[in-house]
């Protein structure tokens, strides 16, 4: 199992320069976990694509449904105190710290491309590039 941040989920479903890496990450470990927050963040990404005319409403709904299916059973609540503790000792947002807290709680790596998370939490975070490098 790995914790993935919302960007990794988005790369899997929305074509980008990192989409192949996200697919490789899924092949390497298909048991992705995330805090419940991922849903709101991902819907915000889809809203951006929808408003820019890059996705239809129907495609947005389909993609959201597929992503929810992928994450089913591996979405977690994170204790606020744990998040605030991580915020206190970093420069990361509370949103980002939810993913870090979950990775710490589950004792699994957080896969991300977020440079700030990678810098502030090297004990928990691994870059997407590094995670898939050995495939």
What does this structure look like?
This protein has 135 residues and is an alpha/beta fold. The protein has one domain (2-133): 3-Layer(aba) Sandwich (Rossmann fold), CATH 3.40.50. The chain contains 8 helices and 5 strands; from the N terminus they run βααβααβααβαβα. A 5-stranded parallel sheet has the order 3-2-1-4-5. Strand 4 (110-112), helix 7 and strand 5 (125-127) form a beta-alpha-beta unit. The two termini are 17 Å apart.
Any chance you could write out the topology, listing elements then pairs?
Layout: E1 2-4, H1 6-13, H2 19-28, E2 32-35, H3 37-51, H4 57-71, E3 75-76, H5 80-88, H6 94-106, E4 110-112, H7 115-120, E5 125-127, H8 128-133
Parallel strand pairs: 1-2, 1-4, 2-3, 4-5
Helix pairs in contact: 1-2, 1-3, 3-4, 5-6
Gist?
This protein is 61% helix and 11% strand.
- The appropriate CATH architecture is 3-Layer(aba) Sandwich
Q: What coarse outline follows from CA principal-axis ratios?
A: globular
Radius of gyration: 14 Å
Strands of the widest sheet, in order across it, are 3-2-1-4-5
- Determine the mean pLDDT: 97
Number of helices: 8
Structural class: alpha/beta
User: Could you spell the SSE succession in H and E letters?
Assistant: EHHEHHEHHEHEH
Strand proportion, as a percent range, falls in: 5-15%
In total, the number of strands is: 5
What separation lies between the terminal Cα atoms? 17 Å
Q: Stretches where pLDDT falls below 50 for ≥5 residues?
A: none
Query: How many discrete domains?
Result: 1
Task: Give keywords.
alpha/beta, Rossmann fold, 8 helices, about 60% helix, globular
